[in-house]
Design a protein that fits this description.
This protein is about 40% helix and about 15% strand. It is of the alpha/beta class. It folds into two domains: about 10-240, Alpha-Beta Barrel (TIM Barrel), CATH 3.20.20.60; about 245-270. 3-methyl-2-oxobutanoic acid binds near residues 52, 90 and 220.
Length: about 270
Amino acid sequence: MSVHAAARPVSIHDLREHKERGERFAMLTAYDYLTAQVLDEAGVDVLLVGDSLGNVMLGYDSTVPVTVDEMLHHLRAVRRGADRALVVGDLPFMSYQASATEGLRNAGRFLKEGGAHAVKLEGAGPIVDLTDRMVSLGIPVMGHLGLTPQSVNQLGGFRVQGRDRDSADRLVADARELDEAGAFALVLECVPADVGRRITEAVSMPTIGIGAGPHTDAQVLVISDLLGLTAGRLPRFVKQYADLRGMITDAAKAFSSEVATGDYPGPEHSY
Ligand code: KIV
């Protein structure tokens, strides 16, 4: 249950106050109206329409092919289901990297057409300046460091980042720059727990870990992993809180079998 049980919508300032008070909060991904409604009612503070949409909902191999229009379609659905949660939209690969102008326009579309309260950008370097510009123009930005899946081809696979001293120091420095540029929160993906702790202590914005250990200010998981819907081997950081794949399979089999035997529909289901 959320530490913010009141129905008042969650703002980016509430998240910073959580950090200041030492209260941890949860973020989950959502891609559709119904799931957003359930998660919102469950008191999840932040819903991320992640570009993991590509893998989870659209069957792509990575997040690289995801387009702005695909994101907007799902963002609008999530926004319709969320009355209280802060809704963050992930700007997809090459919707903000080629130029600041394009990034600003696409972020604007996420807020104006998608109803997002904020956008998420991966990386540092030139993204720090872009964050600064977006924030100064009224677009709240969530950063994302560590394993940044949009750069999977550059990183050479889905690997833990920041394992050696130099790369860990680089991540801490990047996080500080994003903090100074005005990002309101930072996702840390697949970094050693000690790096998660160092960054969390180094910045004033809340850190949201996924495979970043127990010391971050918040945690995020991909909803289909948490619910046990995802097929195949899951990353070590995933904790499965339900077995929906098994439940759906059983329900679908039971329905098929009752249709075959004529047990469904019964008199109580007929007019
Ligand atoms: O796209 C996504 O789901 C994400 C989370 C893993 C943080 O970026």
